[in-house]
Design goal:
The protein has 190 residues and is mainly alpha-helical. It has two domains: 51 residues; 123 residues. It is 72% helix and 5% strand. The chain is built from seven helices and two strands; from the N terminus they run H-H-H-H-H-H-H-E-E. A two-stranded antiparallel sheet has the order 1-2. It starts with 16 loop residues before the first helix and ends with a strand.
Length: 190
């Protein structure tokens, strides 16, 4: 997964390319209109843009994925002004997505892969901050305990996401996955 891109992939069929481009332009126009209106946006425009995004999930994935927005914010907070460091981290993340099989993964696995990546970034950010505080030598015992606690929680979150991906893949390999949430059943199969 690379940084956000406005170069959205057109459909494979060149004949439908013009329709696709027109629909993308419609999404752009509606998005600008809705953003300018803010909380006073026209409900018809909101419904129209939602329908267009549902019709083109690749656009939604690139522009509206909450996990992607979270990842970008984590990176911005972690790197700040180090442009090379940002590019280095972006490349590392892209390699992690590839290594975890994101592109070929079904939607449920993709959600878990996002959690793995985001918890990895957060955990490493906290470890980096802790190392900096240790190196500076200006950390009280209470601060050290708090940082150790945060690191332990972050590590648990990361390991839980990795274990969840392994479980999802194992269950999906058994011919399908069945999840019951709040009395509603969700069946996922490859």
């Amino acid at each position: 997964m690379s940084k956000k891109s406005t170069n959205l992939l057109p459909p494979d069929d060149p004949a439908s390319n013009n329709d696709y481009e027109a629909e993308l332009e419609n999404i752009r126009v509606l998005a600008r209109k809705i953003q300018a209106a803010g909380v006073n946006a026209n409900p018809t425009d909101l419904k129209a843009v939602r329908a267009a995004l549902v019709k083109h999930p690749e656009v939604c994935e690139r522009l509206g994925n909450m996990a992607t927005h979270t990842r970008e914010r984590l990176i911005t907070e972690m790197i700040k002004t180090d442009t090379f460091g940002n590019e280095l981290l972006q490349a590392e993340i892209e390699l992690m997505y590839r290594g975890l099989g994101y592109e070929a993964a079904p939607e449920l696995e993709r959600l878990v892969i996002h959690q793995i990546i985001n918890s990895y970034i957060l955990q490493n950010s906290q470890e980096n901050r802790y190392a900096g505080m240790l190196g500076a030598g200006d950390m009280s015992i209470e601060q050290a305990r708090f940082m150790e606690y945060r690191l332990a929680i972050g590590q648990k979150r990361f390991l839980r996401a990795v274990e969840t991906l392994a479980r999802v893949r194992k269950l999906a390999g058994l011919g399908g996955l069945q999840i019951n949430i709040g009395g509603q059943q969700l069946n996922v199969s490859k």
